[in-house]
Automatic annotation (TrEMBL), chain A:
Residues 1-78 form the Carrier domain. PROSITE patterns: CARRIER (PS50075). Gene3D superfamilies: ACP-like. This is Acyl carrier protein. Pfam families: PP-binding. InterPro entries: ACP-like_sf, PP-bd_ACP. It comes from the Bacteria.
TrEMBL record, chain B:
InterPro entries: Acyl-CoA_DH_CS (IPR006089), Acyl-CoA_Oxase/DH_mid-dom (IPR006091), Acyl-CoA_Oxase/DH_mid-dom_sf (IPR046373), AcylCo_DH-like_C (IPR036250), AcylCo_DH/oxidase_C (IPR009075), AcylCoA_DH/ox_N (IPR013786), AcylCoA_DH/ox_N_sf (IPR037069), AcylCoA_DH/oxidase_NM_dom_sf (IPR009100). Keywords: FAD, Flavoprotein, Oxidoreductase. Residues 228-369 form the Acyl-CoA dehydrogenase/oxidase C-terminal domain. It comes from Streptomyces tabacisoli. This is Acyl-CoA dehydrogenase family protein.
Length: 84, 383
């Protein structure tokens, strides 16, 4: 599951930065992709695409550093929503 | 007389504006303030923050509906719309990013208009470049110590609650500051070019002591999202208000052209005048559709709303400035006369090109769209 989440998230980011090549483990902050507008678009995208909500305490840089860490965040929120 | 609106749809708000705003707007403009009596009317009509959920006293209005409300108010008076805009920004920030305690503390009062909000970002030394703000919030005894000066604060002279953006370490965070907090000083700014009744002020924060519950939203990298989100909503409101200005210019110009004769013929038969009116008719519809698209995407939680809102604001504000100039032209000397509504639209429209991302910033930002995949297509086309 986390794999397809990662693909979806990577497709969104690359759609915004078509010239870039991006692996799932690259630090997107070090690539200079993230400004506050893009960060907000990313959060909105994840919430809508996966039907999860991201409360303030999940909006930590480590959750957004790589495509993989975002996919894991989504997994975790989906699991939480089911068990809650 | 009761002014409670039966519904908050466009036609109810339109009648409210025609009855209570249009006849007074020029008087407010000259007085440089919206009277308390009318603020109470807005409260009674439920217009301060109708998008808030019914649980806290809002009407649960969606963003498309909110855009229509702000367009209608903006058609009557951009100063009143400005008050609604900044109040909306503060209310939304608490609703979207606030803790449960902050929501309980503030939302019912914000929904009811018992507490009026203002948005404090700009400073004497920093406007477009928000990163350049120098107001600081320093951790202090479990809370915060806030110091700095904010300028050009709409409703600053009247508001009860300030949403203040301050440097907090390396990021910019948002803080809720009651006007009554010791160390808050408000200095009204009179005689602005436009939106003259929007009660601007300079607001100084001199070592204002705040509790831990003053910080709104996440800290760290995500704190900038609070600012981006609040500005996005402000931009949406200004876009809608600008559509209202174009509509008002069109109404005034068509009415005047039909009735004024030059050389024995009504103005409305002159080709050059008809050309101006054609462009107004076209642009008001285009601008309204762009706003509706941005609102629809907001309601869907679609991140494409951010760019759609930039585009709507850029188009609508520049259309408002262009057509307000032409509306004055069509009215001739009367357009320049004291108390002329078209003169007010002209001055107010200029402000729309400066606030919530000036036209220059819009043009720099919207260009990003050109370098994205599927640029220029609406989100529907991409699916
Ligand atoms: C009536 C009114 C109400 C306002 N209400 C509020 C409020 O409630 N709260 C608040 O925080 N602020 C408010 N403001 C301030 C407003 O947000 C700022 O005026 C706006 O952000 C622009 O900043 P500035 O005036 O400092 O211009 P500057 O940032 O100094 O810019 C000056 C000029 O340079 C242009 N420019 C800037 N950067 C670039 C660039 N990179 N490339 C090319 N051109 C550039 C600008 O577009 C502008 O034309 C209000 C202003 C007005 C006039």
């Amino acid at each position: 599951m986390a794999n397809t989440h990662a693909q979806t998230i990577r497709a969104f980011i690359v759609g915004r930065h078509p010239q870039a090549e991006l692996t799932d483990d690259q630090d997107i902050f070090s690539l200079g992709f993230i400004n506050s507008l893009f960060a907000m678009e990313l959060v909105m995208f994840i919430e809508k695409e996966f039907g999860v909500s991201l409360p303030n305490d999940e909006l930590r840089i480590d959750n957004f550093r790589t495509v993989s860490s975002m996919a894991e965040l989504v997994e975790r929120r989906l699991a939480g929503a089911v068990s809650a | 007389m009761t002014t409670a609106l039966p519904t908050l749809d466009r036609s109810a708000v339109r009648s409210f504006v025609d009855a209570h705003v249009v006849p007074e707007a020029d008087r407010w403009d000259r007085a440089g303030a919206i009277p308390e009596e009318f603020l109470a009317r807005l409260t009674e009509a439920g217009l301060w923050a109708p998008f808030l959920p019914p649980e806290v006293g809002g009407a649960g209005l969606d963003m498309r509906g909110l855009g229509a409300v702000h367009e209608e108010i903006g058609r009557g008076c951009s100063s009143v719309r400005s008050l609604l805009t900044v109040h909306t920004m503060v209310s939304w920030a608490v609703q979207r990013w606030g803790s449960d305690a902050q929501r309980e503390r503030w939302l019912p009062d914000l929904a009811a208009g018992r507490v009026l909000g203002a948005f404090c970002l700009s400073e004497p030394g920093a406007g477009s470049d928000a990163v350049g703000i120098t107001t600081t919030a320093t951790a202090h005894g479990g809370g915060w110590l806030l110091s700095g000066v904010k300028k050009w604060i709409t409703n600053g002279a009247r508001a009860d609650l300030f949403l203040v953006f301050a440097r907090n370490g390396s990021g910019i965070s948002a803080f809720l500051v009651p006007r009554t907090a010791p160390g808050v000083r408000v200095e009204p700014i009179h005689d602005m070019l436009g939106t003259r009744a929007s009660m601007l002020a300079e607001v100084a924060f001199d070592e204002v002591l705040l509790g831990p519950d003053a910080l709104v939203g996440p800290s760290g990298f995500a704190s900038g999202m609070v600012l981006s989100g609040v500005l996005d909503l402000g931009r949406y409101s200004v876009a809608a208000g600008s559509v209202g200005i174009v509509q008002a210019c069109l109404d005034a110009s068509a009415g005047y052209a039909a009735q004024r004769t030059v050389g024995g013929a009504p103005l409305s038969e002159l080709q050059l005048i008809r050309a101006k009116l054609s462009d107004m008719v076209t642009d008001v519809r285009a601008a309204r559709l762009l706003c509706e698209e941005a609102g629809r995407l907001k309601d869907a939680g679609d991140s494409a709303t951010i760019m759609a809102t930039w585009v709507a604001k850029y188009f609508a504000s520049t259309a408002a400035a262009r057509h307000a100039t032409e509306a004055v032209q069509i009215h001739g000397a009367l357009g320049c006369a004291p108390g002329s509504p078209t003169a007010r639209f002209y001055r107010d429209a200029k402000v729309m090109e400066i606030i919530e991302g000036s036209s220059e910033i819009q043009r720099i930002t919207i260009a990003d769209e050109a370098f994205r995949q599927d640029y220029g297509r609406t989100p529907e086309d991409q699916r």
